[in-house]
Amino acid sequence: MNLLARAAQCSSSSSRILPRLGYPAATLATKSSNQKQYLVNEALVQAIRKRARNLPPQEIQVRLLQHPNSTQLLSLPQAVQLSVQQKLDLIGISLQQEIPVVRMENWKSFLYKQEKESSAPKRKTIKEIHLQPKIADHDLERKLQQVTKFLEKGHICVLKMPLLLLDTVLQQLPPSAELMHPPQIEGQKALIRVHAK
Known about the structure:
CATH class of the largest domain: Alpha Beta
Pfam family, one: IF3_N
Largest sheet: 5 strands, mixed
Domain Translation initiation factor 3 N-terminal: 61-118
Number of strands: 11
Number of domains: 2
Organism: Fistulifera solaris (Oleaginous diatom)
Protein name: Translation initiation factor 3 N-terminal domain-containing protein
Keywords: Initiation factor, Protein biosynthesis
């Protein structure tokens, strides 16, 4: 009996637990980076069936994510049958909701995307540099060199200084620095935010 026939059989029988559908061996996977577990294929079907103890399989609803903006509300056997037809894995995304959310995707490409997202930098760090009113020229050069190093690493720099130094600092900013917005002036103090061009 082929996989489609088994999927069709499980949609017609209401009292049986869904049979093994011949999915690949990966039924439970753990990502090592953040230890989040995803249920895949048969383990997913068993977990959903266990949650809905009293319902027959064709009455168990799942929300299927196929594309970034497209969702479908299907019965569990229909989702299984669709994944078998398209030769994709059924991956549990959020099983704690009233209607479990599953996704149809190749298991290895899903893991690759998850690893790529977790290794990407979360956000840019903001570095603050304070300048004193009577700063020496050499010290000002050193502070601006520090700004250049921070910008090369992709950080955002906030320079806090007295209003007297604003024009001098704006003229001596490194060429790689770009103002994020006009300088903020509060009384005798000024603040500028810069990022790399």
